[in-house]
């Protein structure tokens, strides 16, 4: 129908994608934002930028708000960051964390944004293949922290590619917080210092027996056998880790002292160990399972034996689920809690806690160096595991570094003893390491 003379018709106002995004951020976007519709927002001279390349990327952002939607768009390549390397997006994450405060739009603004972006026709796209099932759907793999389900989620994270881990972690193949004796120390020096500190805290002596649960690629086992002459057994749920560790033991001629088994720590039947080390396992155990976890490790020790528990912790002791990105892409079923809860659980199982130490700044440095390795080996890493997986790791490592720097997460080593029946701990009057 044509308009009658003298009448006027105006189209409903519409926002571009960039305008809509800018309106959702209090104070405006801190970086240069561009979108596939040709729109842009944010400072034109910004050193860092964000480019929304596809409608699928918009659908990811709009149908899964928060870190999950951003991660899906970024991992799939539908959202790009400029001014940073995908192997180390640290600078962009810091900028966004410090300067991005989302605001709740008014009802009229929300309607305008929804109409402008045609949100009614956006449907959630299939997630990238790197994404694990949500928690509620993992029930098909068994109860949370059952042996079958733990085996599945450990495989999801650790059985990526041994070659990929070699490039990111470096020759030490240590996927836990290092210890930097000086700020200038290399990653390899820091990892060696960490394992040596654990050995000294455990008071290892030639001829003793060590159990290392969640042993990874067997670095602790090999260090203890080579440097301290102990007979060391390591167990891991990752088949690829176990195979790599066995080959490393043979390569170094340590077969008479060191062993790595593909085994759940709960299936270790041997007892009478002089020491037990747990470096990076507690995060996968589940807080509700701490009593049985510490009881099992206690029972592996002989009286007078020592336990060193090294794990990521929170700055509080309130139960809190991990964020969607970490849970779906990095550590499915992972759980963190404060050091107080860990200490309490150990004490409740009859272990005497002798020492506790927070290495939080050291983990920030460790993550920095892992990002550097990923950047230096980016092309080979992408060829090995694909760009999507490499992006997951760059994002996860850089984001974790920010968390440790800001004190949102910490790293505690808790040293405890299984005492003799008469109360003797065989622990020195003062720490001797």
Automatic annotation (TrEMBL):
CDD domains: AdoMet_MTases. GO terms for biological process: methylation. GO terms for molecular function: methyltransferase activity. Pfam families: CMAS. The keyword Plastid does not apply. InterPro entries: CFA/CMAS (IPR050723), CMAS (IPR003333), SAM-dependent_MTases_sf (IPR029063). SUPFAM superfamilies: S-adenosyl-L-methionine-dependent methyltransferases. Its EC number is 2.1.1.-. Belongs to the CFA/CMAS family. This is Class I SAM-dependent methyltransferase.
